[in-house]
From TrEMBL:
<dbReference type="InterPro" id="IPR006094">
    <property type="entry name" value="Oxid_FAD_bind_N"/>
</dbReference>
<keyword id="KW-0285">Flavoprotein</keyword>
<dbReference type="InterPro" id="IPR016164">
    <property type="entry name" value="FAD-linked_Oxase-like_C"/>
</dbReference>
<dbReference type="InterPro" id="IPR051264">
    <property type="entry name" value="FAD-oxidored/transferase_4"/>
</dbReference>
<dbReference type="InterPro" id="IPR016166">
    <property type="entry name" value="FAD-bd_PCMH"/>
</dbReference>
<dbReference type="GO" id="GO:0022904">
    <property type="term" value="P:respiratory electron transport chain"/>
</dbReference>
<dbReference type="InterPro" id="IPR036318">
    <property type="entry name" value="FAD-bd_PCMH-like_sf"/>
</dbReference>
<keyword id="KW-0274">FAD</keyword>
<feature type="domain" description="FAD-binding PCMH-type">
    <location>
        <begin position="41"/>
        <end position="222"/>
    </location>
</feature>
<dbReference type="InterPro" id="IPR004113">
    <property type="entry name" value="FAD-bd_oxidored_4_C"/>
</dbReference>
<dbReference type="InterPro" id="IPR016167">
    <property type="entry name" value="FAD-bd_PCMH_sub1"/>
</dbReference>
<dbReference type="InterPro" id="IPR016169">
    <property type="entry name" value="FAD-bd_PCMH_sub2"/>
</dbReference>
<dbReference type="InterPro" id="IPR016171">
    <property type="entry name" value="Vanillyl_alc_oxidase_C-sub2"/>
</dbReference>
<protein>
    <submittedName>
        <fullName>FAD-binding oxidoreductase</fullName>
    </submittedName>
</protein>
<dbReference type="Pfam" id="PF02913">
    <property type="entry name" value="FAD-oxidase_C"/>
</dbReference>
<dbReference type="Pfam" id="PF01565">
    <property type="entry name" value="FAD_binding_4"/>
</dbReference>
<comment type="similarity">
    <text>Belongs to the FAD-binding oxidoreductase/transferase type 4 family.</text>
</comment>
Length: 474
């Protein structure tokens, strides 16, 4: 990778290609693109490219490849691991796909949507709804995150237990490769057994192999009936027992099953405007979300029967069921505002980890205890997707501790949590990806043949190493 700054001739060519809307160079315009959502990293760039078409992006990539200019793709810039932030060298060009924001096609019979990379996730959900369908991928940043970003990171979110991660919702891709070639793999086929499934190389690669510019996404029937309940449960084991009860009654009805600690719910009540909690003062909570496209599915009596059994067994201590869409939204808001509430409470170290579902209670207990031993006064705030084994094992700074001093121990904390995760057969990154934050963990967790194969794929597809350098691979 060249050490010299971007040549002015390249900037001139990009300006001629993209025009004033497509090339940003003013420091004020660059600033929003230079730091990540968590403010862990702040980089520098000579310019931000904002192509208005796939053809413009392909030609810009060709120009940058010829000049040896590294490229950093950026969607909604909601990465939790610094995956879309340029480094401090001032040589990496940020490529924003925000202007590639068209829904090209929706087919309610095929149950597919073809959307460009810059389509905001919420806009994709709304477009599907207008067509009488459901695009089920749902996460806290859905008002900002984009289709290209969630596919590049293989985002999970709240409904993975029912619909799978982003990878499972993708049928085909369009990709601009590192040399500027455009691969059109926008196939709407459920079955296509014709060699290597190239589309899966780019999902989860975090832009290190090419730019996803559009995707064919799977749609589903819209739910005709939904039920949401907030439950105070005895402990982590009771939360898992309740999940099993609901799943055993009707696995296909479980759309989401979320765990929350009493600490996290307390932060929500303290810091989020209008943050009322209908069942205050408990140590453990779960949010149960059921949905069915079947008419007269009987979800309400199913939920009430399960809760009655769990109350009699002492697993559920109290529960409330949303009686309207507004109430269901209010219950979900308790869960969705967890990241913002933690941010307002102080410094926190985030661990996006997964273990087998049966090991979730042990993960929460053991990791919490280990982190309290590491830094006395640390406040564990575990929450997340109990139904698929993905818990955000977050740690809040001790009260009164200097935030910077706590964050300086971030890697010690992550190592402490990961030691428990490894012992339980889990993964150190469940849905946030590797980005820049976790590259140092890759040799220990994915070393040997696995990491070697990743590097060989990277070298074959991106021989100059220009695509999102410094991310994923150490």
């Amino acid at each position: 990778m060249p050490d010299q700054p971007m040549p002015s001739s390249l900037l001139d060519r990009l300006s001629a290609l993209l025009g004033p809307r497509g090339l940003l160079t003013d420091p004020a315009d660059l600033a929003p693109h230079l730091s990540d959502w968590r403010n862990l990293y702040r980089g520098s760039t000579p310019c931000v490219i904002r192509p208005g078409s796939v053809a413009e992006l392909a030609e810009a990539v060709r120009l940058c490849a010829a000049a040896g200019a590294p490229l950093v793709p950026q969607g909604g810039n909601t990465s939790m691991v610094g995956g879309a932030t340029p480094d401090e060298s001032g040589r990496q060009v940020v490529v924003s796909l925000a202007r590639l924001n068209r829904v090209r096609d929706i087919d309610p019979l095929d149950m597919t949507m073809t959307a460009e990379a810059g389509v905001v996730l919420k806009a994709a959900q709304d477009a599907a709804a207008e067509a009488g369908c459901l695009f089920p991928l749902s996460l806290g940043a859905e008002g900002t995150a984009t289709v290209g970003g969630v596919l590049s990171t293989n985002a999970g979110g709240n409904t993975t237990v029912r619909y799978g991660n982003a990878r499972e919702l993708m049928l085909g891709l369009e990709v601009v490769l590192p040399d500027g070639q455009v691969w059109n793999g926008l196939r709407r086929l459920r079955k296509d057994n014709t060699g290597y499934a190239l589309r899966h190389l780019f999902v989860g690669a975090e832009g290190t192999l090419g730019f996803i510019t559009a995707a064919v996404l799977r749609l589903f029937p819209r739910p005709r009936e939904t039920e949401v309940a907030l439950c105070a449960v005895r402990d982590e084991d009771a939360a898992l027992a309740l999940f099993r009860r609901v799943r055993d009654r009707d696995e296909g009805a479980v759309r989401a099953f979320e765990y929350m600690s009493g600490a996290g719910v307390g932060f929500y009540a303290r810091h989020i405007e209008g943050g009322t909690v209908p069942l205050p003062g408990y140590d453990h909570y779960v949010l149960v979300d059921l949905a069915s496209s079947r008419p007269e599915a009987g979800l309400r009596p199913l939920l009430e029967a399960v809760l009655e059994e769990a109350l009699e067994a002492g697993e559920v201590l109290d529960a409330t069921i949303g009686e309207s869409e507004a109430q269901r939204h209010a219950l979900w808001r308790i869960r969705e505002e967890h990241p913002e509430a933690q941010k307002r409470e102080g410094a926190s170290v985030k661990n996006d980890v997964s273990v087998p579902v049966s090991k979730v209670p042990e993960l929460i207990r053991r990791a919490s205890e280990a982190c309290r031993r590491l830094i006395p006064g640390t406040r564990p705030v575990p929450f997340g997707h109990l139904g698929d084994g993905n818990i955000h094992m977050n740690l809040e700074q001790p009260e009164g501790m200097d935030p910077a001093a706590f964050l300086a121990r971030s890697h010690d904390i992550m190592d402490t949590v990961n030691a428990v995760v490894r012992d339980l057969g889990g993964s150190f990154s469940a849905e946030h990806g590797i980005g820049r934050l976790k590259t140092d963990m890759m040799p220990d967790w994915r070393g040997g043949a696995e990491l070697d194969l990743m590097r060989r794929i990277k070298a074959a597809v991106d021989p100059q190493g220009l695509m999102n350098p410094g991310k994923v691979l150490p």
